Amino acid sequence: MTAPGGAGVLHARPTCFSSAWTHLLADCFHMDMKTLYIRNVPEDVAERLSRLASQEGLSVNAFVVRELSAASRRADNRALLANAPTIDVNMQEIVDLIREARGPIPPR
Predict the structure, then answer these.
(1) What is the pLDDT of residues 61-88, one digit of tens each?
(2) How does pLDDT run across 18-57, given as a tens digit for each residue?
């Protein structure tokens, strides 16, 4: 397909995007974006990131932005949990009740 005025080739947009990819794109267009430069990335880390991104059909940049976004949200979770009220719960009692409710584990 040619762009209007014959200026190069337009590539048709794939008809299906994963939900995570769609949300990542939506975030990019509705937020002020900052640019981060990461120096001294070990070669094995860079290769691993490239491989993981490729397996998911993403650019390394999109993959790293997604992973950094998830990591930053987990940091917020820690703060949330730190402010949660403490309750006296015996975890072993909970585990025992769940095992009792499930019944015996069938042999394999």
Answers:
(1) 999 999 999 988 888 877 787 888 888 8
(2) 566 666 666 666 567 888 899 999 999 999 999 999 999 9
Which helix (H) or strand (E) segment holds residue 93: the answer is: helix 91-102
Record the pTM: 0.48
Three-state secondary-structure class, residue 92: helix
Q: How many CB atoms lie within 10 A of CB 63?
A: 20
Q: Residue 24: CB partners within 8 Å, gap ≥ 6?
A: 62, 65, 66, 69
For CA atoms 46, 48, 51, 54, give the dihedral sign: negative
Encoded tokens for 81 = 């949990």
15's tokens: 């008809």
